[in-house]
Task: structure prediction
Amino acid sequence: MNCPSRDKVALYVDNELDAGAQEQFAAHLRNCPECTAAVNAQMELKKSLRAAGRAFTAPPELHASVYRALRPQRSVNVLWKWALAPLCVVLLAVVGYLLIPKSRPDTMMARLVDQHVTNLASEHPVDIESSDRHTVKPWFQGKLAFTFTPPELAGTNFKLIGAKLAYAEQRPGAELWYEAGAHKISVFIFQSRDEQVKSGTSHDLSFNVTRWSQGGLDYYLVTDGSQDEAGKLVEMFKQANKS
Amino acid sequence: MEDVSRPQNTDFEKLALPLLDPLYNFARWICGDPDEARDLVQETFLKALKGFASFKEGTNFRAWMFRILRNTFLTSRTGLEHRNTQQEDESGFADAPGPDDSPEAALVRRADIDQVRKAIAQLSLPFREVLLLADIEEMKYQEVADALGIPIGTVMSRLARARKQVRDSILQSAGVKA
Result:
């Protein structure tokens, strides 16, 4: 009952033996029921611990506060500051234009248009760069309390560039960044609130904004491309997220 | 000079943000309180961002982040209380193997998630933190040693004892004398 190799069980289960020793011990297991049973029991215990130990996920407000703490620290080099100055003037004009005549629900759209414009000028418009929707979708796991499916783009004019977390009106959301020819497209996705988002399109300052609700989520698509082009991507999103 | 900070922060975000949930999970397990865990994680991120320039490339970033969190915890009120009240038996290096090959192993396998959680919560802090990093975060022994600032031999002995205590606790709640 006391195999001399028994002290290697934990090292083997934890993958801490070097490759040669790992193989040697695996060979030993074929002839030692005592160590085999011990390995199986330890693996079972590890499995149970892993499942039980992952008990807590960070609340959305922690995601938001960490994100806020990181973002203002970013500084821009002097050259960029000068290059961005005219853009800031345009941005102020955009914000002013959008805020003055609009009622409250449109402030969300104004913010998202701002975000889109900021991205256009940014060196790093995304936190994860990938054209693969199967890479981008899982990146949001654990960061957002909801899920969605980015559409398949094969055979279309659209290209996925990447994604990042977005924040608007104190709620976290997803932002996907696409390219269609020379145009850039932002798709923002947030969990719906009680008030229904009105579906529709608008054309503020040359930006086409399309919004719709589907499956408990609010979608906003912002682009400087054509309404037809925007409509195609909207339709693809709707199809991909049909329940 | 100004050029340097932007890529650094971008790098920091890329490395650190995926650790938010694991750090929060670890913080909840070691301090037990959601508000305190949230503050700990937030403070950890701020300290890490501030000290990122001193982080040596090639060393383990995940272990570095967990170490900051754990040190922050140890200097908090709850952490100091733990330090003052916990007495740890470090004597004996190797742990006597338990009855792995008996029907008890089947009981451990069938233990429900609440039983296992209760068993983890009952561990003393030095055992719980080693178990969390090795078995839940799946860190290598060296990474655990780096995160906790203890020798690798201590990691191994604490881990063996922690696992044994968890197993005994599960068996006990199943009515088997461990």
